[in-house]
Amino acid sequence: MGTDMQGKLYLCATPIGNLEDITYRVVRTLKEVDLIAAEDTRNSIKILNHFDIRTPMTAYHEHNKIEKARYLVEQMAAGKNVALITDAGTPGISDPGEELVKMCYLEGIEVTSLPGAAACINALAISGLSTRRFSFEAFLPADKKEREAVLDELQNDTRTIVIYEAPHHLLKTLELLLSALGNREVAICRELTKVHESVFKGSLESAISFFRKNDPRGEFVIVMEGRDRKEIQKEEQEKWDDVDINDHIEMYISKGMTKKEAMKQVAVDRGVSKRDIYSHTIK
Known about the structure:
This protein is an alpha/beta fold and 283 residues long. The chain has helices spanning 24-32, 41-50, 65-77, 97-106, 119-126, 144-154, 170-181, 204-213, 229-238, 245-254, 259-270, 274-278; strands spanning 8-12, 35-38, 57-59, 82-85, 110-114, 134-138, 160-165, 185-190, 198-203, 220-224.
């Protein structure tokens, strides 16, 4: 626990479905802290009762995250230890917990995270897609312009992309992704860690066809392949096909490059050997 003079914030991961996924350390910490801040007290009381945790609880959610964060920081500054839990998974990841963490650091309050379940990691691990690099987008923005801006950014993202979605928006989101990003390979993970956990593997087009026939139920995580690097490179090279090589070289010279440097860069742009470029001279 925290020092005698000041308390500490404990970010405690809770199960995303299966109650057995909670750690011994989280259960012990929730019993030992002075106060538990929960995103939804009605939901969290079920977990606390299951593990016989009697610690006082207070609501901390999107609509009171600033005012309540100040209160919680005051409590920790006075020496109380606070545990933060979300509805499911790791607090601070795509939820109001990030505001409390920021405020704690501003006020010199120590913060630690107790690891556990995170739907984005679980889905990525069982997706069968590349896991070396990934982009976590959580829920796409509800605002149309913001959503379009995010989709524009994702068009040439070569990382695997992870997106959360509710059942009643799933089809619309899949259709948006297909329209904006093309027919990518996806793994659509449903009800992770729960009795009816399932993974749909296939293309966006086949996923849309499947969920039009099978009513989406439960919470979903969409894991989608990133853009192929070679495809991007090919498109970039094709942009120069209609540009005269001498004009291309002159463009770089006008920017301050030497003729030799310009020729090397033109070779890179066009995906050809330097020898091919050196065979041309500026008229």
